[in-house]
Amino acid sequence: MIKANDVTRAGVVGAGTMGNGIAHIFALHGVHVTLVDVDKGLLERALATIEKNLDRQVQKGTCSDSDAVVALQRIEAETSIESLSDVEVVIEAATESPALKFELFELLSSVTAEDALLATNTSSISITEIAARVNEPSRVIGMHFMNPVPVMQLVEVIRGLETSDGVTKFTMDLCKRVSKVPVLANDYPGFVANRVLMPMINEALYCVMEGVAEPDAVDSIMQLGMNHPMGPLALADLIGLDTCLAIMEVLHHGLGDSKYRPCPLLRKYVAAGRLGRKSGCGVFEYRET
Ligand code: NAD
């Protein structure tokens, strides 16, 4: 396997909230990125978001104008997984659905070189189960970036049962290459970040459902009382309520404890299409800026 600093081509699968951020940081650190999603409209929207976020970095002085222009030119948008045949690294950031990820990794296994890294940004789905779909399971690992990717420092790196030491070291180095701080965890439902975070978000939704307090009050109590930079309900809208529900289902099913049952109000919002910021409305309403 090559060294992380020698990686020149990466593929990112899924151009949503996380995928566009991951493409952004790799391109900004000199890697050519092929960004794959199911249709052209979604890819155009992702490229526009990346351009806006790069502009924001230029305004803040954290990136030069010319670096932002070059970074955008390094990103190529494609609708087919087959376009990833020559990449050294793939980071999958498609919708949080086990069936979808299993299918994608079966495809990635046949399309990519046998020594290409296959990483998933899943928030909660078992790395070991995903790796079982791949010809060489030792090359599969979790790279759990935080939202918003260009801003947040952490990557939770998750070793599956079969992930090799070499692949783990390569992934830790790759995180550092894109200026992130990797922290290692093992493969159990929700890993660390969401095992701790999601029950808090779920409980905040129970508080709203049971009339304990209004959404604004719940968030203010947690912000002012616990010194959280953002309330749990605003954070749920940022993450996406469908993603939160999918993670709660994995915790509930994988750990088998009723304390992880998803809040019925969360189910109701998702059923109504209130997915959070990305759909314009979740627990709170959002206007286009
Ligand atoms: P999202 O809904 O914003 O984007 C998912 C994208 O995947 C969509 O654009 C969708 O069209 C695309 N997609 C679906 N099927 C595909 C396929 N077959 N091929 C290519 N693309 C496909 O979701 P997101 O919030 O970006 O989450 C993506 C992943 O990142 C999930 O696994 C999620 O758990 C994880 N994650 C999310 C957050 C967060 O805060 N949103 C944080 C960390 C990790």
Task: Give a quick rundown of the structure.
This protein is of the alpha/beta class. It has helices spanning 17-28, 40-60, 65-73, 98-111, 127-131, 165-177, 193-209, 215-226, 232-239, 241-255, 264-271, and strands at 9-13, 32-36, 75-78, 89-92, 117-120, 140-145, 154-159, 181-186. The structure holds nicotinamide-adenine-dinucleotide.
Structure explained in plain terms:
With 289 residues, this protein is an alpha/beta fold. The protein folds into two domains: 4-186, Rossmann fold, CATH 3.40.50; 194-278, Orthogonal Bundle (N-(1-d-carboxylethyl)-l-norvaline Dehydrogenase, domain 2). 46% of the residues lie in helices and 14% in strands. It contains eleven helices and eight strands. An eight-stranded mixed β-sheet has the order 3-2-1-4-5-6-7-8, with helices on both faces. Helix 4 (98-111) links the parallel strand 4 (89-92) and strand 5. Helix 7 crosses helix 10. The model has no long low-confidence stretch (mean pLDDT 96). It binds nicotinamide-adenine-dinucleotide (NAD). Nicotinamide-adenine-dinucleotide binds at residues 13-19, 36-38, 42, 93-96, 100, 104, 121-123, 144-145, 147, 239-240, 243, 278.
